[in-house]
Amino acid sequence: MDPQLANQLLEEGDGQAMLGGQAAEATVLFTDIRSFTTISESLGPQATVSMLNEYFEIMVACITDAGGMLDKFIGDALMAGFGVPLATDDAPDAAVKSAISMISQLRVWNASRLTNEKPAVNMGVGINTDTVVTGNIGSSKRMDFTMIGDGVNLAARLEGSCKTYGAQIIISEYTKSKLKGIYALRELDRIVVKGKTEPVSIFEVLDFHDDSTFPARMDVVGHFSEGLNHYRSSDFDTAIKSFSAALEANAKDVPSQLYIERCNLLKDTPPPAGWSGEWVMTEK
Fold first, then answer.
1. Distance between CA 167 and CA 206 in Å, rounded?
2. CA 248 → CA 135, 226, 243, distances in Å?
3. Phi and psi angles of residue 230, each rounded to the nearest 5 degrees, phi first
4. How many CA atoms lie within 13 A of 110 on its CB side?
5. Is residue 28 within 8 Å of 49, Cβ to Cβ?
6. Which of 83, 155, 210, 216 shows its CA 20 to 30 Å from the CA of 274?
7. pLDDT of residue 40
8. Residue partners of 46: CB distance under 8 A and separation at least 6
């Protein structure tokens, strides 16, 4: 745990109880580097370690600057918490702002890497807000303050789903519902993650984009939203027209491409009665 955070816990007077374990609402953030194996093979061991250290230096600063707690590194991934171990009233906003800063800072870092003929690094971020269990967990030889629970697992699943939707930041409906600020969001889907039965709505955060990284954003999001409504009403032909219009505005929009494929699939194999657009994810 960050020494300043540990000291703050002890000053609050109930630090020992918190470290012993408690349930608390938290906003959990997961990140992961895309195609890390390919990058590491091209760089070699020493350059890979150097790259990771530079990358994590940037990411951790984005977390702590937003008031978050770095939980752990997991290979090339990391996990962070907001609103733990000390509760705050803006944890969801802080997590989203941290993720936006991560992608923005990554873009600057990548520009420098490309100038030095080094491969660019891409990443995904998943964010979820839920009640989690926090505390010192481990063995008598080593213990770490960490978070566990379904809310943590969903954040990890959302990070993984970034690859499916071509997104860089995905948040759950639970995080969205608690945001106080105004953000550029696009509803992507209503998914049932692997190992669960209830669907959750997911949203793409778009605030870090500009005209060069997401041309015709307003037009694309407008057409996509129309298509999503038709899709959920099982009007697949009209939905395809809307998604196609989104692609005419921006041919690289991955979600629109994905939904056209789904619509064609569902036209051949119609969904069951009472279906409302949820999609069952088969991968973590």
1. 9
2. 50, 15, 9
3. -65, -40
4. 12
5. no
6. 155
7. 92
8. none
What do you get for the CA distance between the two ends of the chain, in Å?
Answer: 28
Tokens 């298509």 correspond to 227
Residue type for position 202: I
Q: How many helices (H) and strands (E) does the chain have?
A: 10, 9
Beta-bridge mates of residue 216: none
β pairing state of 143-148 and 169-172 = unpaired
DSSP 198-226: S-EEEEEE-TT--TTTSTTHHHHHHHHHH
Angle at alpha carbon of residue 26, lines to 121 and 152, rounded to 5°: 60
Tell me if the bond preceding 270 is cis, omega within 30° of 0: no
DSSP one-letter string for 88-151: -S-HHHHHHHHHHHHHHHHHHHHHHHHHTT-----EEEEEEEEEEEEEEEE-SS-EEEEEESHH
Q: Contact at 8 Å (CB) between 106 and 93?
A: no
